[in-house]
Predict the 3D structure of the following.
Amino acid sequence: MGGDDARLRAVVALAQTMAAACTPRESWRAAALRACEALGGGFAALSVWERDRGRLRVLVNAGQRAEGEEEFPEEETYPVHQFPEITEFLHERWAGGGEPDAWVETADGPLGADGSGRGPRPYCPQRVAALRRRGRGCCLVAPIVLHGRAWGELYVARPAGQPVFDRDDADFATVLAAVVASGIAQTERLEEVRKLAFTDPLTGLANRRAVDLRLDEAVELHRAEDAVVSLVVCDLNGLKAVNDTHGHAVGDRLLERFGSILSLCGARLPEALAARLGGDEFCLLAIGPSADDVVGVATELCDRAAVLELGNGVACGVASTGDPIGPVRTARRLFRLADAAQYRAKAAGSRRPVVAGRDGEVIRLADSPPKSAHDRRRLRGNRP
């Protein structure tokens, strides 16, 4: 009974640890580590079947990793044709209503229905070779099924010289894989909610909430490491006229089109965040690139917006800690400077970006008391 109690506690611990994970990586790592502990393994991996690319991609390697095995590998993938059970065996055995079950492989070759395996398995020399190469004696492979389809696999191995997994271990691994599947489903739901919370639904760009969080982090990085932080704020001219003349559906298409241009131009700045702040206001946030590089991208953005079929181009302002704009200790300060530059560009009808620190009036405008409620709202970066 003690063994059953221990396994029940292991199932509960696995479910609780995955439920407490805040990110997909934390969830994957928790799944692999807890399953490894529960099965008395030395190493565990979680892999996903990427159907569109015809490959198994390793998400996490946990436990006693061999040389060359990274915890979160960027590109550790295996063609699925090397693992027929993931595409053929699983489909044939349980797609019609059967249940997927785990099986055992050893460094000496496959096992049959002799207490360790349940029926014949397709021989997989790649797994056997991998066990030998990495000093492991045996492994359990447990299919992970999500929404009625093969999602991937849980893999747990023991070092050479340790007892081979038995049928009870394989049955328990099947249970653990089902718990992992539930945890992954929850993580995916949370990620979808998180994505919706930080994404503009019309353009697919980041939203204001995402910008605020990233900008706060960027300014802290600037203060700690003197990283160059640049903000491009732009206002799409003529949107109201488009809405009034052609209807809001056409106006929405203009916003989507400009959002695509913003994303395209922003791709020239590594890791830049392209966002729609709301209404006709957009921004680019860059951490690292020089002020000149950011101004160059902002200029291209203005040029591309000027030739859109509808609208009247954009008013664009730039503020970068790489320019002489004075100390930037808060995100609000950088936002005020970028927004003041954009405000000046709009007032002047400029077809080129106005840059704080290169246009003396911008800093004065950002530091002067706003003349109206609208100006106050704009120059504090629309923050309450």
User: Anything to note?
Assistant: Residues 95 and 149 are 8 Å apart (CA to CA). Residues 167-197 form the longest helix (31 residues).
